[in-house]
Amino acid sequence: MMKSYVGIVSKCGIELLYPEDPATVRFLWRRAQRQNGRVACFWGVLSGEAAEFIQIEVALGWNSEALDHLQQHARDYGFIVPFREDLESHATQRMAC
User: Whole-prediction pTM value?
Assistant: First the structure.
Protein backbone atom coordinates (compact mmCIF):
# COMPACT_ATOMS: atom_id res chain seq x y z
CA MET A 1 0.00 0.00 0.00
CA MET A 2 1.29 3.44 -0.91
CA LYS A 3 1.70 5.99 1.89
CA SER A 4 3.03 9.51 2.14
CA TYR A 5 6.34 10.06 3.92
CA VAL A 6 8.22 13.23 4.88
CA GLY A 7 11.85 13.83 5.68
CA ILE A 8 14.90 16.05 5.57
CA VAL A 9 17.42 15.93 2.74
CA SER A 10 20.89 17.51 2.58
CA LYS A 11 23.79 17.41 0.16
CA CYS A 12 24.73 14.07 1.78
CA GLY A 13 21.31 12.52 1.06
CA ILE A 14 18.31 11.71 3.21
CA GLU A 15 18.80 12.58 6.88
CA LEU A 16 15.36 11.53 8.21
CA LEU A 17 12.26 9.78 6.84
CA TYR A 18 8.93 9.39 8.68
CA PRO A 19 5.29 8.66 7.80
CA GLU A 20 3.48 11.92 7.08
CA ASP A 21 1.59 13.48 9.95
CA PRO A 22 0.87 17.21 10.60
CA ALA A 23 2.93 17.19 13.81
CA THR A 24 5.82 15.45 12.06
CA VAL A 25 5.82 18.00 9.25
CA ARG A 26 6.02 20.87 11.78
CA PHE A 27 8.81 19.09 13.69
CA LEU A 28 10.85 18.50 10.53
CA TRP A 29 10.36 22.06 9.31
CA ARG A 30 11.60 23.48 12.63
CA ARG A 31 14.52 21.06 12.70
CA ALA A 32 15.52 21.99 9.15
CA GLN A 33 15.53 25.67 10.12
CA ARG A 34 17.90 24.94 13.04
CA GLN A 35 20.37 22.82 11.06
CA ASN A 36 23.57 24.28 9.67
CA GLY A 37 24.12 24.00 5.95
CA ARG A 38 21.65 23.60 3.15
CA VAL A 39 18.82 21.25 4.01
CA ALA A 40 15.23 20.94 2.82
CA CYS A 41 12.07 19.17 3.88
CA PHE A 42 10.58 16.81 1.32
CA TRP A 43 7.65 14.43 0.86
CA GLY A 44 7.34 11.23 -1.11
CA VAL A 45 4.72 8.59 -1.85
CA LEU A 46 6.22 5.14 -1.27
CA SER A 47 5.21 1.56 -0.67
CA GLY A 48 5.74 0.35 2.89
CA GLU A 49 8.52 -2.00 1.77
CA ALA A 50 10.42 0.76 -0.05
CA ALA A 51 10.05 3.14 2.90
CA GLU A 52 11.31 0.50 5.33
CA PHE A 53 14.32 -0.20 3.09
CA ILE A 54 15.13 3.52 2.87
CA GLN A 55 14.79 3.95 6.65
CA ILE A 56 17.26 1.09 7.16
CA GLU A 57 19.72 2.76 4.78
CA VAL A 58 19.40 6.04 6.69
CA ALA A 59 19.97 4.22 10.01
CA LEU A 60 23.13 2.64 8.56
CA GLY A 61 24.39 6.04 7.39
CA TRP A 62 23.88 5.30 3.69
CA ASN A 63 22.21 8.66 3.12
CA SER A 64 23.00 9.14 -0.57
CA GLU A 65 21.93 5.57 -1.38
CA ALA A 66 18.68 6.22 0.48
CA LEU A 67 18.08 9.29 -1.69
CA ASP A 68 18.80 7.28 -4.84
CA HIS A 69 16.28 4.65 -3.78
CA LEU A 70 13.67 7.28 -2.93
CA GLN A 71 14.02 8.74 -6.41
CA GLN A 72 13.74 5.28 -7.99
CA HIS A 73 10.85 3.90 -5.94
CA ALA A 74 8.67 6.91 -5.10
CA ARG A 75 5.47 7.25 -7.09
CA ASP A 76 5.87 11.02 -6.60
CA TYR A 77 8.07 13.29 -4.48
CA GLY A 78 8.88 16.96 -3.98
CA PHE A 79 9.94 19.68 -1.59
CA ILE A 80 7.82 21.05 1.23
CA VAL A 81 7.74 24.83 1.06
CA PRO A 82 6.77 27.02 4.02
CA PHE A 83 3.59 29.01 4.31
CA ARG A 84 3.90 32.70 3.38
CA GLU A 85 3.73 33.73 7.08
CA ASP A 86 6.65 31.42 7.87
CA LEU A 87 8.70 32.96 5.07
CA GLU A 88 8.01 36.51 6.25
CA SER A 89 9.02 35.78 9.85
CA HIS A 90 12.12 33.90 8.64
CA ALA A 91 13.13 36.83 6.39
CA THR A 92 12.64 39.28 9.27
CA GLN A 93 14.87 37.17 11.51
CA ARG A 94 17.61 37.08 8.88
CA MET A 95 17.45 40.84 8.33
CA ALA A 96 17.81 41.44 12.07
CA CYS A 97 21.13 39.53 12.18
Answer: 0.77
